[in-house]
Design goal:
Length: 112
């Protein structure tokens, strides 16, 4: 997931015949680890001076007790509601990662 996300953002042509390794270790999780991993990777690449087309930011949403929630925690993540994760490059307005973990009824789509 992270590889596909950042292949769209990193200027790979600046690194011919090179490999950029990204390792993410979660020390303690309270939900939203996928989004945190993407956001932390963006910050690490910027800090390392890796040239990118745009930075990547990610956020997850769910429906919990008929209410739409953003930046979900562990309780909300495992509430059996649909989890919608989106990673975008904001300046270019490109979606680089889109994931829906379960079915989402049309009535709830508008809320997200």
């Amino acid at each position: 997931m992270i590889q596909n996300t950042f292949e769209a953002a990193i200027l790979l042509e600046k690194f011919p015949k090179s490999q950029i390794d990204i390792f993410v270790q979660v020390l303690q999780g309270d939900g939203g680890e996928r989004c945190v991993a993407i956001n932390a990777t963006t910050m690490a690449l910027i800090n390392a001076g890796i040239p990118m087309k745009d930075y990547v930011c990610a956020c997850a949403a769910t429906i919990y007790q008929d209410t739409a929630l953003l930046d979900i925690n562990h309780l909300e993540e495992f509430s059996r509601g649909p989890i919608f994760m989106l990673a975008v490059m904001p300046k270019s307005e490109q979606i680089v990662q889109l994931q829906l973990d379960s079915r989402l009824h049309n009535d709830h789509w508008i809320k997200l």
